[in-house]
Specification:
- The protein is mainly alpha-helical and 121 residues long.
- 87% of the residues lie in helices and 0% in strands.
- The chain is built from four helices and no strands.
- The longest helix is centred in the first third of the chain and has 36 residues.
- The radius of gyration is 16 Å and the shape is elongated.
- The protein starts with a helix and ends with a helix.
Length: 121
């Protein structure tokens, strides 16, 4: 196996790790949202989790760029990752504005799309 093939596989696995991390953080946000409704520390967990989820979305963009750039493959994963970052931004704004009627369904949509992206990789 050549060095370039090994490097490409490593980048693909980094992309998979980034997507898996994003999916996990979105799932944990759903759990912390439940705690938000039932405990005094739920708001703190949900707020901290939002920052981690946003960071995971940024990591997904970085991983997509790193997977694309050296190999010259399709930039499609970058578009997907950028879309998730936009959704995460909207999600944060809606959460801060306390608009649960849109915030909650968007979170479910994001989890489903992230899970789909993970399954495709």
């Amino acid at each position: 196996m050549t060095t370039q093939a090994t490097a490409t596989q490593r980048r693909i696995s980094f992309l998979q790790i980034a997507i898996a991390l994003q999916t996990l953080t979105i799932f944990l946000q759903a759990i912390s949202a439940g705690l938000l409704l039932t405990s005094s520390y739920g708001e703190t967990l949900h707020s901290a989790g939002a920052r981690v989820m946003y960071g995971a979305s940024m990591l997904y963009v970085i991983a997509a760029v790193l997977a694309w750039k050296p190999g010259g493959g399709s930039p499609r994963p970058i578009w997907y990752a950028s879309g998730f970052l936009v959704l995460a931004s909207v999600q944060v704004v809606l959460g801060i504005a306390h608009v649960p009627s849109v915030h909650l369904p968007l979170g479910v949509l994001m989890f489903g799309l992230s899970l789909l992206a993970l399954a495709r990789r």
